[in-house]
Amino acid sequence: METLHIIGGGMAGSEAAWQAAEAGVPVVLHEMRPTVGTFAHKTGDFAEMVCSNSFRSDDDERNAVGLLHWEMRAASGIIMTTADRHQLPAGGALAVDRDGFSQAVTAALRAHPLISFAEGEITELPTDGQWIVATGPLTSGALADSIRSVTGADSLAFFDAIAPIVYADSIDRSIVWAQSRYDKGETEEEQKAYLNCPMTRDDYEAFIDALLAADKAEFHEGETAGYFDGCLPIEVMAERGRETLRHGPMKPVGLTNAHRPEDKPYAVVQLRRDNALGTLFNIVGFQTKMKYGAQTEVLRLIPGLQDARFARLGGIHRNTFLNSPTLLDDRMRLKARPNLRFAGQVTGVEGYVESAAMGLLAGRMAAAEILGRDLPPPGPETAMGSLVNHITGGAEAKTFQPMNVNFGLFPPIEAKGGRRGRKDRYKAYTDRAKESFTLWLDAQG
């Protein structure tokens, strides 16, 4: 039987390898780490979480990301199965112990009898054999050059910023309090999954002044800052207007200061637990490109973090993605070389879950082809189907940008019996998607 080769052991590559091997196809997983490192990665483990430890909302009835979780669980995806085993309380979101999670994915892949491994960097797109390219947003320069030469089109670039992580014992608990926004979550632990740092108006104005004045990382020659709006650095948001952060990651709504319940904060900075031990917290939505020295000074202006020690400061790196609507077919194959499939963030999806979901589809599609079958994508009314439809033709190629899954990518729902409320409409989307996705799975036997 033909072997499937996969380049990249991130979320997409790990999921693709698992799906293909579970279908009975032998897999070789090629990963350049730790032989060749990247700016953002710290280990050689598979499915390492770089930007955050959150898979976002786990609500599969009224949230498109939660629906994607449901579909991946239904398809026995290794990413979601492992995430569930390493879950941390996060007030309705699915957050994990990032080290335990990636170590468990690595162990499962290495234990699979049909998966073997090859270390080292691949610098050229292969000309024969069945391959999935899942190199992610940090595709190496040599391979990116090879992709450009084969496609005849430049890969597009945007910048993805990493949020800082704080040691829990350096947070002033006399100032911060534990509460999830609007007390979300079914258990008390989930309802108190976040730590909240309150700001007065004077605190906020001083913070914005310092943020705007702080030294920022310089871009390399020839690079342009085309940020993805879902992951904007805080200083870029502040530059768009002094109140922007207060209506974004620093919004004070849905929270009551447990120490001073009569005082309404002007702004709030939230911290989310980053590991199972509860020794690390990341600053939610605080991706930044400030230089390290400036970060320490500015972030310690946040009440409760005046003595903060940082396990990791924020950073910024270049992300590469294809203009997929012009380059890929609906089986995620490169039109110029149909033996090559692409999966993950390099295709222009944004987020851990979306990347893994594209890996899941690519792995199943490649395995089906090797086994002599054709596997169409799930319908566009499903979360996975809406994403693959978007990146392979649903998006406008001239303005193509990375996209998280959202109900705006789904075919509209016909309202019955009058206008639906938003929650009822979202439930109708997810009900329809689950039925369609189940039929897609059942058809595979």
TrEMBL record:
Its EC number is 2.1.1.74. Keywords: Cytoplasm, FAD, Flavoprotein, Methyltransferase, NAD, NADP, Transferase, tRNA processing. The keyword Lyase does not apply. The keyword tRNA processing applies. One of its GO terms (biological process) is tRNA wobble uridine modification. It is found in: Cytoplasm. FAD binds at residues 8-13. GO terms for molecular function: flavin adenine dinucleotide binding; tRNA (uracil(54)-C5)-methyltransferase activity, 5,10-methylenetetrahydrofolate-dependent. PROSITE patterns: GIDA_2. Transmembrane segments: none annotated. It catalyses: uridine(54) in tRNA + (6R)-5,10-methylene-5,6,7,8-tetrahydrofolate + NADPH + H(+) = 5-methyluridine(54) in tRNA + (6S)-5,6,7,8-tetrahydrofolate + NADP(+); uridine(54) in tRNA + (6R)-5,10-methylene-5,6,7,8-tetrahydrofolate + NADH + H(+) = 5-methyluridine(54) in tRNA + (6S)-5,6,7,8-tetrahydrofolate + NAD(+). Its cofactor is FAD. InterPro entries: FAD/NAD-bd_sf, MnmG-rel, MnmG-rel_CS, MnmG_N, TrmFO. GO terms for cellular component: cytosol. Residues 4-373 form the MnmG N-terminal domain. HAMAP family: TrmFO (MF_01037). Belongs to the MnmG family. TrmFO subfamily. Catalyzes the folate-dependent formation of 5-methyl-uridine at position 54 (M-5-U54) in all tRNAs. This is Methylenetetrahydrofolate--tRNA-(uracil-5-)-methyltransferase TrmFO. The gene is trmFO.
